[in-house]
Amino acid sequence: MTADHVPRAARRVAGDWRVLSSRTERPAAFDPSMVADLPAAARRWLTHAVAPGTPLWRTVELSMRGEIRIGTWRPFTARQVLAPPRGLVWAATARLYGLPVTGFDRFSSGSGEMRWRLGGLVPLLSASGPDVTRSAAGRLAGEATLLPTAFRSATWTPGSAEDRVVATWHVSGQDERVELQVGPDGRLLGAEMDRWGNPGGAPFGRHRFGVAFEAERTSAGVTIGSVLRAGWWWGTDRQAEGEFFRARITGATFR
To answer: Is the dihedral of CA 144, 155, 28, 33 positive or negative?
Structure first.
């Protein structure tokens, strides 16, 4: 997979995709001493997730498949480029009324956007502006867990319990705080944050958002969560109602 191989669904933002997926030049190699001063849960996760000597990659391209709730649960396939805190582009194809729904969500160059079409022709969703940008910035911070080699771009502080740690990412002029839950063996179990959005048609504001990781995969010395569920109102009695995303990561290329 090369930086020039932009997904068809993301052609409109091909330039952003190429910039975000460009290879890091001569990245430093990971040494466990780099995390010696971080909170215990962060040290446990990062020394589990990044093998000694692994380059500290700044970008990853992911392929995935799963289900997304658009009224009902519908299958999708997707590719994503992720480069925290610079940006992300998620390009996917699902099906609605028997027709393909294609498009992308992005955060790049300091702004967010969603653009989706039915059958490749009929506009289904087109959204941008300050609220979309703030929501996309929160998504970028949350999904930074899929690129643990970018840990030096975040600020790390103790979490609400011994098995938790807070990563703060400065994105688009905002501090986005993500609390990670780490198992005794260093495996990442979940992430929660107060993310900007309007779930269920609520007024825009910060609402509880979370991700649960149910399996992991290792490639090129990096271990990431590979089976995940995500949604709004995480950890509340509305979690089942707010869950809208289930996916399995099938490929990861680090640069």
So the answer is: negative
